[in-house]
Amino acid sequence: MPVRLGDIAPDFTAETSQGPVHFHEWIDGGWAVLFSHPKDYTPVCTTELGAVANLKSEFSKRGVKVLALSVDKVEDHRGWIKDINETQHTQVDYPIIADPDRKVANLYDMIHPNALDNLTVRSVFIIGPDKKVKLTLTYPASTGRNFQELLRVLDSLQLTAQYSVATPADWKQGQDCIISPAVSDEDAKKKFPKGFKAVKPYLRITPQPNK
Ligand code: BEZ
């Protein structure tokens, strides 16, 4: 079964490079990113895990925990982490799930056999404090992900969870937002004291409410 937006993220217990993780307990009411890689000791994966480790302060300032997954064993992960630290000039300090029996990979539909046989593709799940899935992304093995884009989406998700706004194409933190169509003009005047501009009746722009 695919995991869809709005679903409760499937729970699991798994071995990781930092000991066992009980997923729902580990989320602990915060935001989480679960992301998979095809295989240990592979080049693109090495750069991706290093990129995430180097963004540690960006994830933690947003209150987001990260959890990686690769189908290899814990001993492989531990050896590979040393290589990642050395080559990407970082310290991987988040857990990597060891999933040799593909239990978590299958639970999250991370194996796409017509693309990559018996290995996980590059899946991403962002999970909110309510344990619901807020974003899914799937990249092929040949293309490393843009983790700045994940931070951008996290900013949008955290903002739109708090205010009745949506964020437009290519939005970045601090830029103008769109007032949700469900909010009437009358309510918008109360909710958005900085004011708004109605470009069209359905396209109303307001400064980012929490800036
Ligand atoms: C890589 O990480 O470079 C990779 C992994 C599996 C297949 C192809 C590339």
The order of strands across the largest sheet is: 5-4-3-6-7
Can you give the mean pLDDT? Answer: 98
Largest sheet: 5 strands, mixed
Q: What compounds sit in this structure?
A: benzoic acid
Distance between the termini: 40 Å
Strands, total number: 11
Indicate the radius of gyration in whole angstroms: 19 Å
Structural class: alpha+beta
SSE order, as H and E?
EEHEHHEHEHEEHEEHEE
Fraction of residues in helix:
25-40%
Oligomer: single chain
- Total DSSP helices: 7
Description:
- There is one protein chain.
- This protein is an alpha+beta fold.
- Helix content is 31%, strand content 22%.
- The strands form 3 sheets. The protein has a 5-stranded mixed beta sheet with strand order 5-4-3-6-7.
- A hairpin with a 6-residue loop joins strand 1 and strand 2 (21-22).
- Helix 2 packs across helix 4.
- The termini are far apart.
- It binds benzoic acid (BEZ).
- Benzoic acid binds at residues 38-39, 42-45, 141.
- The site of benzoic acid has 7 residues, from helix 2.
Strand and helix map with partners:
Blueprint: E1 13-14, E2 21-22, H1 23-27, E3 31-36, H2 43-54, H3 56-61, E4 64-70, H4 74-88, E5 96-98, H5 103-107, E6 122-127, E7 133-139, H6 147-162, E8 165-166, E9 177-179, H7 185-191, E10 197-200, E11 203-206
Parallel strand pairs: 3-4, 4-5
Antiparallel strand pairs: 1-2, 3-6, 6-7, 8-9, 9-11, 10-11
Bound molecules: benzoic acid.
In short:
With 211 residues, this protein is an alpha+beta fold.
Task: Describe the structure using short key phrases.
5-stranded mixed β-sheet, alpha+beta, 211 residues, binds benzoic acid, elongated
